[in-house]
Design brief:
By secondary structure, the protein is an alpha/beta fold. The chain has two domains: 169 residues, 3-Layer(aba) Sandwich (Rossmann fold), CATH 3.40.50.2300; 151 residues, 3-Layer(aba) Sandwich (Rossmann fold), CATH 3.40.50. Helix content is 46%, strand content 20%. The strands form two sheets. Strands 7-6-8-9-10-12-13 form a seven-stranded mixed sheet, with helices on both faces. Strands 2-1-3-4-5-11 form a six-stranded parallel sheet, with helices on both faces. Helix 4 packs across helix 5. The longest helix is centred in the first third of the chain and has 24 residues. It is elongated, with a radius of gyration of 23 Å.
Length: 325
C-alpha cells in the first residue's frame, strides 16, 4: 500500500514538473539590450518589474528574459541585437539611444520598446509621439530640456564659475552638433566658457576629469549616459578629488555624495515602460502605443557636499530641492 502511494505521488510530481516545464517553454521572452554592463542592464530591467507585474508577467514564472550588454563597446550592439532576433524574442527592451538604433537596424517585425533621453522623433526612432508607426515605441525622458535646466541650476549654485565642462558620451555627429550649438549658445548667454568631453568607457573617466582641469573648467554638467550612471560612485569620487562642483542627471549620484542632481524619476520611467512591455506581450502593436513622456523630475542637493566645497545654497534652490544633509 505504501509502495503504491509512493508511485502515485511520484507520478503526480512528474506530471507537475512537465506542466511547469511546458508553461516555462511557452512563456514570452523579452530581450534586454544595453550598451554598458550586465549589472546595469539587470538593474534597469528590475525597475520594469512593477509595471510588468500589474500586467500579469513575472520574470521566472511566466516570463523569460534574455540580457545582452556591450561592455561600453557600442560597435558590439548590432551583433547583440541580431542574437536577440535570432533567439526569436517576443520583444526587445532597448536601454538608451545606441541600443535602440542597433535593434531598429536588424528588425522591422520584433517590437522594440525604448528607454531614452534622445528625442525619439528627431532621432528617427518613431514617426511621431502619438503615432509611432512601425515596430518601435517606448518611454522618453526630457533629457534635452533638463540639460539646460541643470546648466541654470549649476550657474546659480556656483556663480563664481567662469567655464563649464560638459561630460557626455558621443553617439553620433548629429547629437554632437546639437550639444555644441545648443549648450554653446546657452553658456554664452550666461557669460560662461564651455568645453565638451566625451567618455564611452569606464577607463576614460579619470582622463576626462584631468582634461577638464587642464582646460581650467570650474564646474561640470553631466549628461545622462550609462558610462556615468553605472559608475556613479567613481564619478563622484573623481569630482571630489578634483574639487569640481557638478550637477548630475539622477539621484543615484547625490546619494553617493554628489553635489546636486536633476532628472527623471527612474522608478516612474520603469513602471511606465513595464506597462508598455506588458501590453505588447498581450498582443498590442507598438505602432498603436503612443510614446510616453516622463515629466516628473527629482531635484536633490547634498548639503554636506556643498559645505565641503564652500558653497552656500541659494534660497530659491533650497525651496525647490529635496536636501540630503
Amino acid at each position: 500500500m505504501q509502495r503504491r502511494e509512493f508511485i502515485v505521488a511520484l507520478g503526480g510530481g512528474v506530471a507537475l514538473w512537465f506542466q511547469a516545464a511546458r508553461a516555462q517553454s511557452s512563456s514570452p521572452v523579452v530581450g534586454v539590450l544595453d550598451v554598458s554592463k550586465e549589472e546595469n542592464a539587470r538593474g534597469a530591467f528590475a525597475l520594469l518589474q512593477p509595471g510588468l507585474a500589474e500586467m500579469g508577467y513575472v520574470e521566472g514564472r511566466n516570463l523569460a528574459v534574455e540580457y545582452r550588454w556591450a561592455g561600453y563597446q557600442p560597435e558590439k550592439l548590432a551583433e547583440l541585437a541580431r542574437e536577440l532576433v535570432d533567439r526569436r524574442v517576443t520583444a526587445i527592451v532597448s536601454l538608451g539611444g545606441p541600443p535602440t538604433v542597433a535593434a531598429k537596424a536588424v528588425t522591422t517585425s520584433v517590437p522594440i520598446l525604448f528607454w531614452t533621453g534622445f528625442d525619439p522623433v528627431a532621432s528617427g526612432y518613431v514617426e511621431s509621439l502619438n503615432h509611432p508607426g512601425g515596430n518601435v515605441t517606448g518611454v522618453f525622458i526630457l533629457n534635452g530640456q533638463l540639460i539646460l535646466k541643470r546648466l541654470e541650476m549649476l550657474h546659480e549654485l556656483v556663480p563664481a564659475a567662469k567655464s563649464i565642462a560638459f561630460f557626455y558620451t558621443q553617439t553620433g555627429d548629429r547629437t554632437e552638433v546639437l550639444y555644441r550649438v545648443g549648450l554653446g549658445q546657452a553658456t554664452k548667454n550666461l557669460g560662461l566658457g564651455f568645453e565638451m568631453f566625451s567618455a564611452t568607457r569606464v577607463d576614460e573617466l579619470e582622463e576626462i576629469f584631468a582634461r577638464a582641469v587642464d582646460a581650467n573648467c570650474d564646474a561640470i554638467l553631466f549628461n545622462d549616459h550609462a558610462v556615468y550612471s553605472s559608475n556613479a560612485k567613481l564619478v563622484v569620487e573623481l569630482a571630489a578629488r578634483h574639487k569640481l562642483p557638478a550637477i548630475y542627471p539622477s539621484r543615484i549620484f547625490t546619494a553617493s555624495g554628489g553635489l546636486m542632481s536633476c532628472g527623471s524619476d527612474n522608478r516612474e520611467v520603469g513602471r511606465q515602460l513595464g506597462d508598455m512591455v506588458g501590453r505588447v506581450l498581450k498582443g498590442e502593436k507598438p505602432e498603436n502605443l503612443p510614446v510616453q513622456q516622463i515629466t516628473k523630475v527629482q531635484f536633490v542637493i547634498n548639503a554636506k557636499t556643498a559645505k565641503s566645497l564652500g558653497l552656500e545654497i541659494p534660497l530659491p534652490l533650497l525651496g525647490l530641492a529635496e536636501v540630503i544633509e
